[in-house]
Design brief:
The complex is a heterodimer of chains A (543) and B (274).
Chain A: H1 2-13, H2 16-53, E1 56-60, E2 66-67, H3 69-80, E3 84-101, E4 104-115, H4 120-123, H5 133-137, H6 172-202, H7 216-220, H8 232-243, E5 262-267, H9 268-271, E6 272-274, E7 280-282, E8 289-295, E9 303-314, H10 319-322, E10 325-329, H11 330-336, E11 348-349, E12 351-356, H12 362-372, E13 378-382, H13 383-386, H14 388-426, H15 428-436, H16 441-472, H17 474-485, H18 492-495, H19 506-533, H20 536-541
Helix pairs in contact in A: 1-16, 2-14, 2-16, 2-19, 3-12, 14-19, 16-19
Chain B: H1 2-13, H2 15-27, H3 39-44, E1 47-60, E2 63-76, E3 80-85, H4 91-98, E4 106-111, E5 114-115, H5 121-130, E6 132-135, H6 147-158, H7 161-181, H8 197-209, E7 215-219, H9 227-244, E8 247-252, H10 255-258, E9 263-268, E10 271-273
Parallel strand pairs in B: 3-8, 3-9, 6-7, 7-8
Antiparallel strand pairs in B: 1-2, 1-4, 4-5, 9-10
Helix pairs in contact in B: 1-7, 2-9, 6-7, 6-8, 7-8, 8-9
The chains are: A alpha+beta (543), B alpha/beta (274).
Chain lengths: 543, 274
Amino acid sequence: MYKLLLCWRYLRTRYIALVCIVSVMLGVATMVVVNSVMAGFTHEMQVRLNGMLGDLVLESRSMDGAADAEAAMETIRQTAGDAVVGMSPTVSVPALMYIDVGGQSLTRQITMVGIDESTYADVSQFGDYLQHPDNREQLQFELRDDGYDVYDHQIEDQSDMKPRQAMADAGWRYRRYKAMLKAQQREQRRRADAARMQALAASGVDPQAGFGETGAADSAAVPGGANDDANPATAFSDPFATAAGDEQPQGRDFDPANETHTGIVVGMGICSWRGSDGADQFIALPGDDVRVSFPKASLPPEAISEFYTVVDFYESKMQEYDASFVFVPLRKLQESRGMIDPTTGIAKFTSIQIKLAPGVDANQVRDQLQEAFPSELFLVSTWRDKQGPLLAAVQMETAVLNVLLFMIVAVAGFGILAIFFMIVVEKTRDIGILKSLGASAGGVMGIFLTYGVSLGAVGAGVGVAIGLAFTHYINEIADLLSQLTGQPVFDPAVYYFYKIPTIVNPLTVAWIALGAVLIAVAASVLPALRAAKLHPVRALRYE
Amino acid sequence: MSELRANLAAVSGGDASLVAPRRAAHATAPHVRLAPLPAGVVDAAPVLLGCRGLQKSYRKGAHQIPVLQGIDLEVRQGEFLAIVGQSGSGKSTLLHLLGTLDRPDEGQVHFDGSRIDNLPAATHDLLRNRYFGMIFQFYHLLPELSTLANVLAPALIAESTLGYWRRRRDYRRRALDLLELVGLSHRLKHKPRELSGGEMQRAAIARALLMQPRVLLADEPTGNLDRSTGEAVMQTLIELNRQSGLTIVMVTHDRWIAEQADRTVQLVEGRIAD
């Protein structure tokens, strides 16, 4: 009983004990916050990775693919049975994309994926990442009239994010408007040419047959006999005519105001970037035409170039994917690359995405499937296998951070050790008094152990409370710090999240608190032993 | 417990007459002494505490300093024994050995007919808690606790949390009675540093009596007090001895104080002088 009473009195009257509590508290709070944020990031990343990659992937080791997706899917179904709930064949190929921006052509290196729009959304979260609500329901490679998301539908709290105003214009209306502008420009250019021709005619130079017409064929027909300075306009308009993507590549009767090329879904990172103010800037919108070059699946490879119309953006918030993937209809890509056998009509595929039933062990199914397919031609991997190094790195990072932060708590433990020794020395006479009154060595030791436990418990308790509060308001705190320092603490341009994701794992918090208390107890053992071993007579005489 | 109650009742029953004459004596005739018990009463009582051939030395660096060199002593039940001696004569050490705060190098300590110096530490703790009451020159109250809590400290040490909780009313009543007995009822909530020396010593006496000990060991109880205060404390001790038959062993260097005891033993250089 006296142990608790004295413990409480010492705790209340020794303000230096507060220092111990504060150091334990800070260590615990930091660990709680760091673990929550790391867990949040990891979770976010894993959800995105899994969403992107599906559960299981069967890949052909050949870039040109393997024949007959139907047969392969049948084999999968027979091998894995009920474990498989969805499958979708895809073709992927490295490609170059050319985006026309104000007459300049921007080239991007991309990975072009042909997907079967009816099944692809079943095997991954792909559908959720699209920007048009109807496409999220069921993807169609068709340009929508309008209604593309101005507000990021994946963020619950819209208060902090900048709306994507440009997306309000996207769609058919934007396409028609651009087509109209193009037509007006062409008309202006035609009139300017006509005026120039008339001026030339008036100055005595004989105008040739190109009068009143524009276009590559006509400007090429301008005679070489004319002076160099006589036809600069037509000479310069020529390269623009071919570089500008939405001229007429497929024949004279293609009308951009009413027609589109095959639809393409482009990664958000390819067509936009995020400014440091958190607002997204776009270089192309749904409704724009882009040109893509990729190799045919033939020997020798032959590069082909095709026009596509952007019909939607896709944003997984994994920068790596958003900045490199574009999606086109599977059949169209197979045709363009010559992957369809002309006699049998059987098409090649490069991979099959597999969705597993919930609760199924992906590794086990992977091993079953790998046995069913020749491993020199096919590779079966889970999404974790594919992102193994990244996941391992994040796990490693968390572990190292925890070790380092635990050191902080351990340092707090040494503080407790030093301060306890001090208190034992200061309280030597009291210890002697207690012993003269019949307190046992174990009892005296108990006072200081209880003291240590209380310090640890109070420190850990308050630390957990502060840590949880900090985690809860971490975005507000980050904003405040940004305002105070003038430097963004959490730059959305870097992380592609608007907010810092956090997940509080109760078990982790419990372990942290327990660890802190244990350290406090361990640190109080030595001083407590010293107190217990004090000789009562010498302690009583201590001045 | 009932025994203690009876004693307490005996003591506090004569409270009015006890406290008043003491104050009167203090104020008017400081040298008035209570009549000693008839010699035969104490002499016939059994030996409660004693030692034989007690030796103790302290080591200081390479030197062995002998403090006690063979002490034989017997304290009878109900006796008030004073041990006098110069500073450094070993009288405090003797008291510590009798009170099991320390262990002798040679010799034996007996309590109530059995040897106690060789008992394990836990039993010594129990003896100090239940059978010996101790008071010291520098009072040795716990500075963090109030007067009342200080008096209750032995009970807190003796009992588990639950046990104390169950008997807290009894203990509290006993502590209040004792504080009233020593005249500190008005100082219950005060911390030791807010008390005068005499008050602190009286609180220490109350604490020493809480567990109803068989022997009270007093180490220079008046050594740090002025004459009149010291006398009042002495008066309290004498009354305890006379009224409730409490056995007291007191160490002092003050001959005048020692004279008030039943018997005086002189200690010279670690031996009892004849």
